[in-house]
Amino acid sequence: MPDIIKSYQEVFNNYLEQEISSSEPAGLYDPMSYILELGGKRLRPVLTLIAASAFGTDKEKALDAALAIEVFHNFTLVHDDIMDEAPLRRGKPTVHHKWDVNTGILSGDAMLIYAYQLFEAYPEDIFKPLMQLFSQTAKEVCEGQQYDMDFETREDVTISEYILMITNKTAVLVAAAMKMGAIIARTTESNKEFIYAFGKNLGIAFQLQDDYLDAFGDPKSFGKQVGGDIIENKKTYLYLKAKELASKELALELDQLFSIKPRNPAEKIKAVLEIYQETGAAQATREAIAAYTKSTFEVLESLDLVGDYKKVLKAFAENLMNRKV
Question: What is the pTM for the complete model shown?
Answer without folding.
Answer: 0.94
